[in-house]
Write a structure and sequence with these properties.
By secondary structure, the chain is of the alpha+beta class. The chain folds into two domains: 9-166, Jelly Rolls; 172-238, Orthogonal Bundle (Arc Repressor Mutant, subunit A), CATH 1.10.10.10. It contains nine helices and ten strands. The strands form two sheets. Strands 1, 2, 3, 4, 5 and 6 form a six-stranded antiparallel beta sheet that branches. A four-stranded antiparallel beta sheet has the order 7-8-10-9. Strand 3 and strand 4 form a beta hairpin. The longest helix is centred in the middle third of the chain and has 25 residues, at 143-167.
Length: 244
């Protein structure tokens, strides 16, 4: 039986480099918090800055429209990006907010497919554009960046299934609460009595596929039950009191 052809020095060196990277992988970085964080690690962010181009967008500017071809991924550096789609009834449905440290466009870039949603800048927003060729080259030589991007794609797939499940709920109460929990996973801040969601009632109404008036009534019902606290453009999911 003929022996396999010898590996070229380039192949051997690349394999050795990958092995070294995984051997020194910090175990503290691969933990539950890392797995659930919607943002990239500092290491991955720096690596992307080295190969990307920074651009600034004004409030309300459309970065990409649904169905538009794209050859770049987008990393939010500052500001926010609104991700939404227009339904068959002509109504906007909010998918999520992109916050600093989060990346978009991975599925379109890797699959060379059109952009699946509208992306609009909210306020002055700085975005790092990473062209497909540079991104592919980076993940080919840096397995930690590749692993981080795979994690982000996995979270987005899970979020997609969460969105589909929420839309199938007939009860407004269930839809609104499910939307609150989903937003809390990706866009919230811990406060002394719970977690604060940075979301307006209008955005929540779009995420729940309901009118703002009906969602407002449901939120006030939740507040009366001691489940939430309403604020200006924010909602706090209250922590349960163990003494109750």
């Amino acid at each position: 039986m003929p022996s396999p052809p010898p590996r070229t020095p380039t192949e051997s060196q690349a394999s050795s480099n990958r092995a070294k990277v995984f051997k020194v992988l910090d175990a503290d970085e691969i933990n539950k918090d890392w797995a659930q964080s919607p943002g990239l690690t500092k290491r991955s962010t720096q690596a992307l800055h080295d190969v990307g181009m920074l651009r600034t967008w004004n409030d309300g500017q459309v970065l990409l429209s649904r169905g538009q071809p794209t050859s770049a991924a987008w990393l939010v550096v500052s500001g926010r990006i609104r991700i939404s789609v227009i339904t068959q009834e002509g109504e906007e449905q909010l998918i999520r907010w992109m916050l600093p440290g989060e990346i978009a466009g991975l599925s379109s870039v890797f699959a060379q497919a059109n952009n699946p949603a509208d992306m609009v800048s909210h306020g002055i927003t700085q975005v790092l554009h990473i062209e497909r060729a540079r991104l592919i080259e980076l993940i080919g030589r840096d397995p930690l960046v590749a692993l981080d991007l795979l994690r982000i794609l996995g979270l987005r797939i899970n979020q997609l299934f969460d969105n589909l499940a929420d839309q199938g709920m007939h009860s407004l109460e269930l839809r609104v609460w499910a939307s609150l929990e989903r937003i809390a996973k990706y866009n919230s801040t811990v406060v002394p009595d719970g977690v604060m969601l940075r979301v307006s009632q209008s955005d929540l109404a779009q995420a729940s596929s309901a009118s703002r008036q009906r969602v407002n009534q449901q939120l006030r019902h939740f507040q009366e039950q001691g489940l939430i606290r309403l604020g200006y453009r924010n909602i706090v999911l209250l922590r349960k009191d163990p003494n109750r």
